[in-house]
Amino acid sequence: MGIFANAFTWWNGASWGTSIVSRRHGEEVGRDEAGNVYFRHRKDPTRRWVIYKGANDSSRVPPGWNAWLRGTIEELPEQGLPPRRAFEQDPEPNLTGTLSAYRPAGSLSGSGVRAAATGDYEAWKPDQA
């Protein structure tokens, strides 16, 4: 794919069209630690968007930036939110479809054995005619 990788696709960063509109009508307001770039419209500051670095997955947007994108806070996260507390954990992206996804014991892709039924379950059997 090379140079044309983002020509028409939206799932791996911005397409050329999104990049052009962002540069022409948007104002870059910040970047997060993952490299995502956040914009607001020059004429209508309530219109906000993000251009992801890499795969377009909204679970990769940190909570503060998510609040800003949705209009929950007006200020940028560094200004509108209190400092991070020592007990807060780093946010994690959605791991579904990756090797790190949760797989319960006994599932097809997990290990272990499924716990036995507790006796309150009776398998359905069709009536024999």
Automatic annotation (TrEMBL):
<keyword id="KW-0830">Ubiquinone</keyword>
<dbReference type="GO" id="GO:0006979">
    <property type="term" value="P:response to oxidative stress"/>
</dbReference>
<protein>
    <submittedName>
        <fullName>NADH:ubiquinone oxidoreductase subunit NDUFA12</fullName>
    </submittedName>
</protein>
<dbReference type="GO" id="GO:0045271">
    <property type="term" value="C:respiratory chain complex I"/>
</dbReference>
<feature type="region of interest" description="Disordered">
    <location>
        <begin position="99"/>
        <end position="129"/>
    </location>
</feature>
<dbReference type="Pfam" id="PF05071">
    <property type="entry name" value="NDUFA12"/>
</dbReference>
<dbReference type="InterPro" id="IPR007763">
    <property type="entry name" value="NDUFA12"/>
</dbReference>
